[in-house]
Amino acid sequence: MTISFLLFLPSGIGALTIYFSKTENVRSRAYQIFMPWCPVFAFFVLTLIFFIEGWACWIMVLPLFMLGASLGGLIAGYYKIKGGKEKENLSVSIIVLLPFLCSPLEQLIATIPGTYQAYTYIDIKASKVAIWNNVTRVKAINRHQDKGWLTRSLGFPRPIKAELNFQGVGAYRKAIFDKGLVFHEQVTTYVHQQKMEFSIKAYPHEIPSTTMDKHVVIGGDYFDVLNGTSELEKLSNTTYRLPLYSHFKLATSFNFYAGWWADWIMRDIQNNILQIVKKRAEESKFNITTTR
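RESULT FIELD:
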């Protein structure tokens, strides 16, 4: 989980690929860019076969590996064609040794945790009674109702249900996902049919080791969800806007990249829940204009 591994290592792989290639092949710029991807994909397949890394983790790091391999291939290709054998040997040696030189230095730099917000909302044509009932108590979700395409593609657990034990500050809700993932939620702010804030805690020891890759496990060393908020905003007599947003924490040396993926994943989870709330509220028997 370092820049040295995610960028410099594939650069070395790309440089070595070009170094051992025939000069006539290397004269093609396309060869310099794309041929280094072959050992990267081979590495990708082997780590999956032997369960060294998980599918989700690889999907996230693969773009960086491909970029790094192509950069290494382009640099090595330049010196192989124009630099002469001595400069080619020197440049490839530097690229290959770079991750081994930089990794110890990178380890000395403590990772600075960063907090981020994932914001989503949906407009619902239903009464606030119907909407709020489905916000506080998300009843069992069938597989066909799950529209979280990104999390499903990455093999993340899908939501099953989440119900408050009562409506008010201090209430507890267990958000249950499949594969053994559970979010323990405690209500910290509650305004009936208007706003609910809740803390979120996932305990890694409760999550089976086969559920998520250790690098992306929620509550682990690198990624954790802190809290969530649901609000209800009146747009008209028949329509309400339901924002749902959360705060999550990252602790890596490349938060600038990991933050994009974490935000996409959190927004996919939230949009999935919002779609379910919308459908159920608009079909609810409480979908009337009067309120309690």
